[in-house]
Amino acid sequence: MSNVILARMGEVTLKGLNRGNFETQLKHNLKWRLRSFGKLSIYQSQSRIWIEAKDEDNPNFADAASAREIMNAVTQVFGIVSVSFAVKFEGDFDCILAESVKYVTQLLADNPDYKTFKVECRRGNKNYPLDSQEIAAEVGGVILDSFPDLQVRMKDPDFIVNVEVRDFNYVYSGKIMAHRGLPVGTAGKGMLLLSGGIDSPVAGYMMASRGMPLECVYFHSHPYTSEQAKEKVIDLARIVSGFSGTIKLHIVNFTQIQLDMLKNSPQDMITITMRRVMLQIAERLAKQNNCKCLITGESLGQVASQTLEAINVTNEVVKMPILRPLIGIDKQDTCDISRKIGAFETSILPYEDCCTIFVAKHPKTHPTEEDVRKAEENLDIGAMVESGLKDVETIVI
Ligand code: ATP
Ligand code: MG
């Protein structure tokens, strides 16, 4: 007898001819994400993936409580829909009955107020002498005999006993929901403009959930933005990387560029001008690093620089597509996702990002092409972009 983690695949199983590639990527990502949890064997049968310890005394598999951390890590691997902790054993039908009773004994010890249950069975081995309904009925019967206080309830029971009969037998109860999506690495790579706010980490998470590996760029204006603001962005990149895998974070020194803008262009256009230069630097970094698109946390109408007019005049400086997964998302929903991925507490730490200090009191909300031309006529934008690209610190997270 041993303990195993059962992970169910989602959308991946709907893929046609490509399904194999998606599954291989998913298993590779699981292996990488779980690399600190000891030597594991990760194998697949139909739409399920089983994760087992190669060493018998791996503490992560001692019991369901010890497995919590590794199971949470599994839920963060895109492509998995849910995760359960199961007991695996060999043997005939009497063994299945005995193990089920043993399993419920432990479950009731941990949850003394459980009163109702049902049994669900899946049979991978179609030659088995009993079909799944018969197995479920027999297991239910022996549980009722052993625990006279329990009752069967088909709708909303306190717990479900799941029995799976395959090459081996498995018993488990309950499941944790995972983050679904597609395995990272099945789409091309994107360059996320990551600031210290709530929105951009969520935007990165959303694109990674569609299979996209990420790199990040952060524009830092030391000393106008503090060392803590930079640490915060590094922390956010680390949180996103729990889902997306390794992230290369490019930190661009933006101070001199911003000071030049402040001196030589109108205050009310500074956010737009800044955004236009950021995007050009980001696009160049993206090309250098084989990224196929840019990603921002913009949401329509949220702030002055996110009106349609402002988005249009910033969009036009780059050729690469800019993905804005939050464009139509309500701020409240973005905050919910931010909490769900564990970024919110970090995002709301009160360190200014580079825009806070350099923002105008009354920014232009409907900039025209003429406004942009005037704002940039005394600036050497090309030189700014080049100088930004010369002063980049890159960290691998
Ligand atoms: P966020 O919550 O992501 O900070 P925001 O609501 O503060 O977004 P803006 O400040 O208008 O909105 O920024 C819009 C987008 O531009 C951000 O989501 C991010 O993708 C990008 N961005 C803004 N400032 C920076 C920065 N200093 N470095 C990198 N990207 C930035
Ligand atoms: Mg911000």
Explain how this protein is built:
With about 400 residues, the chain is of the alpha/beta class. Helix content is about 40%, strand content about 20%. The strands form two sheets. Strands 1, 2, 3, 4, 5, 6, 7, 8 and 9 form a nine-stranded mixed sheet that branches. It has a six-stranded mixed sheet with strand order 14-13-10-11-12-15, with helices on both faces. Strand 13, helix 9 and strand 14 form a beta-alpha-beta unit. The model has no long low-confidence stretch (mean pLDDT about 90). Bound molecules: adenosine-5'-triphosphate and magnesium ion. The site of magnesium ion has 3 residues, from loops. Magnesium ion binds near residues 195 and 197.
Structural class: alpha/beta
Rg (CA only): 27 Å
Bound ions, cofactors and other small molecules, one mention each:
adenosine-5'-triphosphate, magnesium ion
General shape: elongated
Broad CATH class of the largest domain: Alpha Beta
List the helices and strands and how they pair.
Elements: E1 2-9, H1 19-33, E2 40-45, E3 48-53, H2 68-75, E4 80-89, H3 93-110, E5 116-123, H4 132-146, E6 151-152, E7 159-165, E8 169-172, E9 176-177, E10 190-193, H5 199-208, E11 214-220, H6 227-244, E12 248-253, H7 255-264, H8 270-288, E13 293-295, H9 308-315, E14 322-323, H10 331-340, H11 344-347, H12 354-358, H13 369-376, H14 381-390, E15 392-396
Parallel strand pairs: 5-6, 5-7, 10-11, 10-13, 11-12, 13-14
Antiparallel strand pairs: 1-3, 1-4, 2-3, 4-8, 4-9, 7-8, 12-15
Bound molecules: adenosine-5'-triphosphate and magnesium ion.
Magnesium ion (MG) binds at residues 195, 197, 353.
